[in-house]
Amino acid sequence: MAQISVIQGDITTMKVDAIVNAANTGLVGGGGVDGAIHRAAGPELDIACRKLGGCPTGEAKVTPGFRLPARFVIHTPGPIWRDGSFEEPKLLRACYVNSLKRAVENGCQTIAFPSISTGVYGYPLKAAAKIALTAIAQFDAPLQVTMVCFEDAAFSAYQAVLNELD
């Protein structure tokens, strides 16, 4: 079982085996956490991402971390929230599960996640936190997982859900 912690901070500074990027399906640097990761990793990340040919929503692909302290970046495009009836919960859960699978496949023991889909993609924060933390808690691998929340609201939501799960 995964060990989960929630912190407030900047995912680009995490010294872990892998960080997860809340990517877009084209895997081209966008805004929010995606843009921050691309800027911190350097131009090599853009080149590596272009070679991957995009990534469907809910799936996950891996690149080196380049200039980041993390060895790998796991890119997963989250769903855009419409109203919850377009498989958004299923797709968001898949982002976390598939990212964890890629971490295990690459020999990772530590992984850091952002709050996927809750920024410009508009996923309701509390619902996203519950899906994320439940998916991670149910994943059967001895990983140390850190949820890295940039904003106060995300930190509070994830901490509250983690307390409910304990």
Tell me what you see in this structure.
- This protein has a six-stranded mixed β-sheet, with helices on both faces.
- It contains five helices and six strands, in the order ββααββαβαβα.
- 39% of the residues lie in helices and 19% in strands.
- The chain has 166 residues and is α/β, with parallel strands linked by helices.
- The mean pLDDT is 97.
- The protein has helices at residues 32-41, 43-51, 88-105, 125-138, 152-165, and strands spanning 3-8, 18-23, 61-64, 72-77, 110-113, 144-149.
- A hairpin with a 7-residue loop joins strand 3 and strand 4 (72-77).
- It has a single domain, classed as 3-Layer(aba) Sandwich (Leucine Aminopeptidase, subunit E, domain 1), CATH 3.40.220.
- Residues 1-166 form the Macro domain.
Instruction: Give the strand order, joined by hyphens, for the main sheet.
Output: 1-6-5-2-4-3
CATH architecture: 3-Layer(aba) Sandwich
Q: Number of helical runs?
A: 5
Overall strand count: 6
Tell me roughly what share of residues is in helical segments: 25-40%
Give the full name of the CATH homologous superfamily.
Leucine Aminopeptidase, subunit E, domain 1
Tell me the CATH topology: Leucine Aminopeptidase, subunit E, domain 1
Class, according to the CATH hierarchy?
Alpha Beta
Query: Which of globular, elongated, flat, extended, rod-shaped describes the shape?
Result: globular
Radius of gyration: 14 Å
Domain tally: 1
End-to-end CA span: 13 Å
| Quaternary structure | single chain
Order of helices and strands: EEHHEEHEHEH
Sheet with most strands: 6 strands, mixed
Instruction: Indicate the mean pLDDT.
Output: 97
Please indicate the percent range of residues in DSSP E strands (runs of 2 or more).
15-25%
Structural class: alpha/beta
Q: Low-confidence runs (pLDDT<50, min 5 residues)?
A: none
InterPro entries: Macro_dom, Macro_dom-like
Protein name: Macro domain-containing protein
